[in-house]
Amino acid sequence: MAYDNDNIFAKILRGEAPAFKVFEDDYSLAFMDVMPQVEGHTLVIPKDPTENIHNADPVILGHTMATVQRVAAAVKTAFDAPGIMLAQLNGEAAGQTVFHLHFHILPRREGLEMLLHARQMADFDLLERHAQLIRDQL
Ligand code: AMP
Question: Which is the closest atom of ligand 1 to the Cα of 95?
Answer without folding.
Answer: 2
